[in-house]
Amino acid sequence: QDAIDRKEKRSETFKTAVHGLETGISALKTEELGRRAPQWVRDNLVTMCMRCKEPFNAFVRRRHHCRACGYVVCARCSDYRAELQYDGNRLNRVCQECYVFLTGHVVLEDREGKHKGILEKGAAEVSGRSLLCGSLQLLDKNGKGGTRGWFVIPQDDPLVLYVYAAPQDVRAHTSIPLLGYQVKDLPQGDSRHLFQLVQSRQVYTFVADTEELKRRWMKAMARSAAGITPTEEDEDADS
What is the spatial distance between Cα 143 and Cα 210, in angstroms, rounded to a whole number? Predict the structure, then answer.
């Protein structure tokens, strides 16, 4: 009975831990964890730890892969060892959530109980249920430099544009409420496909990869800026 209770506890813990990132990740089923080698998430798809959400920067340089679930995690979140059946039951580096599931040991943490903030929506999870998502470049105020990121307009929050640094990040670094903005087309300059979001003195200038993508983003943002939310009729028409 004690063994049954421990197994049920592990299953519930792991179901909570792995809920989320779906697009681009082949998640292992609970019963396969540790028994089959996972598909590793590529380093260049994330800019922050997929568990604690701390960014990888000059201070947090090392990226590690959990050998059980394949997530990219920081040193602190992967400072655990568990026996993995697919590797001859040898001890391997795993993340905290997989450690709890595989060993049944309880790890106390101060982050427990915190609610998920508005920016703490995983890019892959949101992209899988989005009106439009993809890579854009957001220029600085001078219109010269800028950063490329992963932009998403979610189906369940269609009036907001979420900005991620990478398509598998577990937290957006900013969001832009689209309601009330004007979408402005700009002439093509230096082979760049430019458009803007304008409201009063606030201006965002974007660069799309192609003219077709530019038009799609302009249309989606214009609908959101006008407060037009998607309906079943729209979805049927698109399909």
Answer: 18
